[in-house]
Structures are given as C-alpha cells and as structure tokens.
Amino acid sequence: MLCNMFRSLLALSPDDVLPSVYLCTNKIAADHENVELNIGGSLVTSALEEACGTSRSKIREMYSELGDLGDVAQACRQTQKLLAPPSPLLIKDVFSALQKISVQTGSGSTVRKKSLILNLMRSCREKEMKFLVRTLVRNLRIGAMMKTVLPALAQAVVINSSYNFNNEGRVENMKDKLQRHSAAVVEAYNVLPNLDLVVPSLMDKGVGFSSSTLAMVPGIPIKPMLAKITNGVQQALKLFENKAFTCEYKYDGQRAQIHKLVDGSLRVFSRNGDESTSRFPDLINIVNASCKPDAETFILDAEVVAVDRNNGHKLMSFQELSSRGRGGRDTSITLDSIKVNICVFVFDIMFANGKQLLGFPLRQRRKYLKDMFYVEKLGYFEYAKEITIEADDACLTSEATLAKISCFLENSFQSSCEGIMVKSLDVDAGYSPSKRTDTWLKVKRDYMEGLNDSLDLVPIGAWHGNGRKAGWYSPFLMACYNPETEDFQSVCRVMSGFSDSFYTEMKGFFSGDKILSRKPPYYKTSEMPDMWFSPELVWEIRGADFTVSPVHQAAVGLVHPSRGISIRFPRYIRTVADRKPDECSTAEDIAAMFRSQTRKMDVAPEN
Ligand code: ATP
User: Fold this and answer.
1) Which Gene Ontology BP annotations are present (predicted)?
2) ipTM for this prediction
C-alpha cells in the first residue's frame, strides 16, 4: 500500500514525497535535531471539544470505551453535521503546520498551538481526523516503521523508473532489483539518518541509487552498531574459532558518539541519536585536549563512565552518571555545576579526516584511532582496555586462551565493568550501523547469575501496594514491545530492587494523564492490574531465567503458538533514561534470549 502511494506521489506530486515519509514515520525532523511537538493529550482534547462541539466529559467517556484518542476524534467527527465542506488538507500543509507547532515556545504558545491544531481539525475529511490526532499524540499506529516506509519508497522509485525506461516492458530481475534497492536505502539511512538528504538523493538518483551515494557527515549521528548476547566465554570462542578477535572491557556508562565537525566544534550524541552535547561540557574539554593537531574531523564510538577523582579515578555506577540529569533529551550542565566527573573510554572510529571507515576491519580502524589522540592522563580519555587473540590461538581447546579470556573477564568485573565485548578483528570486522551481528558479542555477569542479559522493559500498569508498601504501587506490570504488531506485551510483575524513595517518586509520576481509564487495545496480557499506565519509562530488569507463561504475552507466537515468555525472580536494576518506550527490548529479543537459554540447557543437560 505504501509503495503504491509513493508511486502515485512520485508521478503526480513529487514535492509531497518527503513530507509523506515524515508523516508516515511520525517524525517532524531528524532525531538528532531534538524537535518535539510538545503537545499533551489535554491540549488535543480541548481542540477536539471546540472543533467538533463534543463536551470534555463525552470525550472522556468515549476514550474509556475506545482507548485511542484518534478513534475518539474520528467518532466525534462522524456525528458532526458540517455547514460547508471543509477546504482539503494538503500533505505539505499538514507537515508545515506540525513544524510550526514544534517551534511555538514561551507565553501564549499553548493558544497558538491550539489554533494551529484547530485549523487542521476543521479541514479533516473521511478518516483524516483519526490519523491527524494520532499524529499529534505521537501514537500513529499504522504498522509502518522507517524500515518499512523507506523500502516502500525505494521500490516505488524502481518500479516507476522501469515503466519509464523499459520500452520492452521487461521486468528482468525485478525482484532482485527491488530487494537491492530496499536494502541500499535502509543502509544509507543508517549511516546518514536524515530524511532531508536521503529521500531527495533517492528520488534524484533513481535506480542508480546505492548506499555509497551518500557519505557520512560529522554532525549527523549514525545508527550505532549493537552487540549480540552470548552464553559466556566458551560460546564466544566457538563463534570466533580460527579467527583473530579482541576482547574489550564492557564499561557500564552511557554510549556517546563523538563528532568533530569541519568547523572544529565537537558534538556528542546518545545511543538513539539525540544530541547531548550540552550535558557534557567536560567531555568536550577532555576530547579537545586529547586530539592530536592533525585530527581534523572524526566520528568516534565511546562509553562515558562516571569516575571518582578522589579515589584513583575509580569507575562508578551508571546511576551516578545519570544523576547528572536525565539522559537523552538535552539537559544543559555548566562546567562549574558538575558534581560527577567522567572518563571517556573510546572503542571505535567510523570516520577520520574526511574518510569513511565503516568497511575497514576493526584492526585497521583501531590504528586510525590510536594515531589520532594522546592518552596521557588516565581517568579522562582512555582507549577501552583490550586484549588480542590471534587466529592461531583462537581455538576452543586452547586452555591458555580460555584462561586468558576468563582472567580478563574477571578483571573487568573487578574494575566495575559489566563484562567484556568480544569483537572480530579481521574477518567480517567492519562497523555495521544499527546491526546486531555475530562479530560483536557481549559477555556479561548476568550470564553467570542467571539470565544471559538484562531486559529493558516498560511499566504498563501496577497494583496498589499492601502492608509496608500501602500507598505506593507494587508490583508493577512490565512489558516488552513488538514493533511488528505495535503492541506492548507483558513479561512479568516486578516488586524488588526499588528503594522507598523510588516508590514515592513513581506514585507521583504515574498520576493524572499517565493513568489510563482502561486497558488500551495494544496492551497484550492476561494480567488485570489495578491501574494501567501510559507507556512512559524504560527500566532495566534482571531475572533468573525465562519460562513459558500462560499469563504473559511477550513474544507470543514466536516460541509457542499461544503462550508468551516470562522471567522468574525479576528485579529492578535502573531506569534507562536515554531510551524511549518503543525502543525497549523487543519480542524478538526475548525470543532469541529464550532460545539461547534453551540451547544452553541442551548442551549441558547434566548440569
Ligand atoms: P546493554 O543493556 O547490554 O548495554 P544495549 O542494548 O544497550 O545492551 P548492546 O549493543 O547490547 O547495547 O551492548 C553494547 C553496549 O555496551 C553499547 O551500547 C555501549 O553502550 C556499551 N559498551 C561498553 N563498553 C563497550 C565496548 N568496549 N564496545 C562496545 N560497546 C560497549
């Protein structure tokens, strides 16, 4: 359907293609530009009252019934009698109204935003009201993500150009062409996540578009490479048999992609591409001081970790770092207000002095990295601690290799790290933006404690606490996200790991608009908590192991046709501030972890 829509737009109204991609993906700007609509449900409701003449109490009643403000708005619209047909809504105008809404700040901004929303609402016809309101409340739910929308556009480009240029009507290798083009555009977007650059280039180059058409630009964050979970050192070694690899400490901090731009300025981006430069003025000074004179432009991958300068730069926990302000969205900090110091541990380089290094093997990228910086003062700017295992020593039967890695892993724990990363050095050792591949593995302590890895889950509901916890919420109902179905699927109840002050904070946080009057249709669970929450937070949860559950719906259909997956003995570890609810652990992640647990049991039945 998307492909057909784009084909029509490409042929009839090409200027609408770019805004359509934005609207379909529910974005108004590139992620790193931190542009937000900043509209609450209550502002949309108030505009709806005025646009449709429906009372607030009626809207509330309908919302209780339907559970989706878009559906409510559509129902209000349908019952409304219009005196004159509204002027049509145009794609470009809707997009530009959203952009205008996003720049309204200061006094009177709510009134101006409402007036822009009203103008849009008054022009809605047919199903437009439903999707306009869903767009405004950032919950579009059309079952399409960037990785669906961009390939649809790429395919529309290919199909339209074959019609134009292929007189004989031959559709030779069309399937291959469509697949190649779809992959190329997604790859290009991972390296340059800016629709303003990718979409026009795709439209301009047509079938000639390839992922190398667009080069990385310092200042635009690339999608970070991700790591796969392993069952431990043995499994990692098995995957790298006869291949050179490296082990690095897995630091427990916050990922930072550090860019040096052509104008010499430095900018920092979080794991999900939000700019966080103003949260790290000290990081900017540290990196500036470590650059060699010929380090003109670069893009680095690093972990920022809190350190105790009075205690030999001892690494501190992630919680200490996050006390510098909530991650992700910019919270400015001045140099003299800094209470928690940091060290930057750099582990990769993707771009150096105008050269894109993604295709270079890690061994070579490391050489670039080490040539660019001074590492003189420990505890400020350091390369991730590492050991190298050459291909000859990379075998499961080598006691010496196993002992070397186990000792390195133990040392990483002693140094307050989460474990180690195991990465290919030469074979398939390029930097793959946004991918979880077998060439980047993580070995964490959780494996030894039970689960291979922790989960990032969203609290979607809670019960009223009893006894000592009366007056607070306990337990909380936690869910993962399934991007394919756009559902939050319950995984477990969690009631341990919280401090009293956290309970109090959550009681205040989950109130007002954040408590839903009924279970939304996209919450999948057989649990019936006392209240349902809107998806707002992401918490890291650890447990003992996975079980198949008749109550919880996580990954339902992936490992069992009707049952979901749950975790036993879950406990709260921390709030993951730099992740949005739809970026939490996915149903597929949980299914993969469940399978890897089953494999572990299969290989060692006697244990
Ligand atoms: P986790 O919750 O385990 O950190 P994640 O989903 O955030 O997982 P993964 O890709 O699974 O991310 O694990 C890699 C993360 O580990 C990176 O995002 C980075 O923040 C952190 N990290 C710490 N040290 C390193 C290192 N030496 N190399 C790569 N990543 C590292």
Assistant:
1) DNA biosynthetic process; DNA recombination; DNA repair; lagging strand elongation
2) 0.95
